[in-house]
Amino acid sequence: MPLFRLQEPDIPPKHLVVYFVVWDEDAKKILLVDHKKAQLWLPAGGHVELNEHPRLTVLRECREELGIEADFWHDEPLFLTSTVTGGLMPGHIDVSLWYVVKGHAYQPLSFDLREFNVVQWFALDQIPYAKSDPHMKRFVEKWEKLLSNDAVNHCCLDV
Q: Which H or E element spans position 83?
């Protein structure tokens, strides 16, 4: 079964997506988007196109959704999840590769108003977990552990 979405919203019913968590090291904050269809606070991201490398998806989506260039903390994804979607587009499964890119809370963003109500920077202890991706807390716990161990450059994929 192909893992690339071939037709919106859910053909095939499981597709590969990327999240890119924008991290401001100085402010110790991440950027989340108030996603219109998902009705959740999520990292920015998008569907991997047919035969597209997920890292290229991050580069493309970072420009399209936030108007910034992706500067990766690590070339490989930090996290891998599988989630049944909800919100206005329920019923399919997103297999998500989570990348971390560098950002600054003061940098101007030109976010996609068709997809997001608003974007907001959150301190790690202020993330609205009840209205976010169900794996967000695990991601943040792993990220905090990597930061505290100074192991960000030696991270590994977590399932």
A: strand 79-84
Instruction: Return the percentage of the chain with pLDDT > 70, whole number.
Output: 82
Domain ranges of the chain: 17-154
Structure tokens at 57: 């998806």
What CATH number should be reported for the domain whose range is 17-154?
3.90.79.10
Distance from C-alpha of 72 to C-alpha of 55, rounded to nearest angstrom? 9
Q: Is 4 helix (H, G, I), strand (E, B) or coil?
A: coil
Characterise 25 by phi-psi region: left (phi > 0), alpha (psi -120 to 50), beta (else). Answer: alpha
pTM attached to this predicted model: 0.87
CA 152, distance to chain mean position in Å, is 17
DSSP string covering 36-47, please? Answer: TTTTEEE-EEEE
